[in-house]
Amino acid sequence: MALLNLQCIIHKLLNSKLETKNIKHVTQIHSQIITNNLTHLSFLFNHLINLYSKCGQLDQTLLLFSNTDHSNNKNVITWTSLITQFSRTHNKSTEALNLFNQMRQTGAVPNEFTYSALLPACCTAENMSVGKQIHCLVLKHGVCANNGSFCFGRQVHGVGVKHGLVELGYVKNSLIDMYSKCGGFGEAVKLFRTIADKDVVTWNVMVMGLVQNNRFEEACNCFRVMRSEGVSPDEASISTALHASASLGALDQGALIHSQIIKSGFVSNSCVASSLVTVYAKCGGLEDASRVFEEIEDRSVVCWTAMIAACQLHGSGDQVIELFEEMLAKGIKPDHITLVCVLSACGHTGRLEKGLKYYDSMISLYGIKPGSEHYACVVDMLSRAGLLDEAKMFIESMPLEPDPSVWGALLGGCRKHGNLEIGKEVAERLFKMEPRNSGNYVLLSNIYARYGMLEKADEVRKAMGLNGVKKEPGCSC
């Protein structure tokens, strides 16, 4: 306990000295860490490295880092902290780049903060070629756009401008993709407009960006403009345009693209075919979706899943199970989306035993790690069957934190079966997790009303008003 207290005291002192930048105090704390044999603690070591750096003692920082015997201390945080200080110091860019190379040789994997720290070191003329290599690593590791880091993306853009790389087509395409995914869609549009000679990849990135930002009608229009400018769409263009049409429920647009698919010869492409199945299903044409599916010769798991999802969307639970069993009989291994559809269908058709069997087979047969959607489906199955205590115990045994969809499935079961005790507990959880979701209030109010507790039901409705929660009125497309 005394040792733990000492660690906490030293940790607080290190944090407080970050503001004063007093090197004398830092060396005293360093001495205490050595005296009490605490150098193996990575969080103290990282703070010490950071503190020496911020006090301007880069040589001392490097010496401390190089002489440590505890390899576990040299993690991505430590390396990034060290690279940051050297990268931001005048005439130390070469040392920063050398540290980055050493880091990679040790097997430590850089993250977006490491690359962000490294970018200032690439802004000199002599490091231009290195900057290009760093750019390639950023793309390879997928840390621009996939992490949704707008600030880091802007820094990469800045480096590209300084090195004259943004005039390269593939760089501009990557930047458009990054801004679309990172909440900077206006920047993506500006970049797109600066490209004079747009190829099919550029158009694809822009159409996908519109889809990712829920601008489905604009995505369809962009696809039409692309074709009017004489750019022939590829399978990626067509799949994205079909996705936009499906989201709009635009059957005429989907049918038009279907005719283009037949003319261009992409009808045999499984990705395109599965997108077409989804379009017809979401536009109300389950028979058309089924006809497209039957015409696919070599059906991949994506095609099977698209058709299974189509049947699930139309409430054809029995057909979902039939298709799934047929898929398994043909030796096609399901993916996690397939199993979400199947588990949901089992819940809606009352197939509890079969549903639990499918759930158990996820890991044992298919090696698929269950996600929140799968857990929510199991809870829904148990709740619909009236096994509310079992559903609650299942949630409590989950290896990950239950999200609102999981608790919401249990609350729905409590409303159906009138379980006030569990319903109150679950509703309170959901009020904290989703304070603006009116559905949770309505469900709890309905449970009270079912028990004849009209005053309590009215209190819940009033609480909605006090908390500024409004129930959205129903509407039809």
Supply the key terms.
27 helices; single chain; disordered N terminus; 477 residues; mainly alpha
Proportion of residues in β-strands: under 5%
Q: How many H/I helical runs?
A: 27
Mean pLDDT: 79
Computed over alpha carbons, the radius of gyration is 29 Å
Give me the strand/helix succession.
Answer: HHHHHHHHHHHHHHHHHHHHHHHHHHH
Q: What characteristic shape results from the CA principal axes?
A: globular
Uncertain segments are 1-7
Question: Structural class, from helix and strand content?
Answer: mainly alpha
Question: Roughly how many Å apart are the termini?
Answer: 65 Å
Sheet of most strands: none
Protein name: Pentatricopeptide repeat-containing protein
GO molecular function, one term: RNA binding
PPR repeats: 75-110, 199-233, 300-334
Family: Belongs to the PPR family. PCMP-E subfamily.
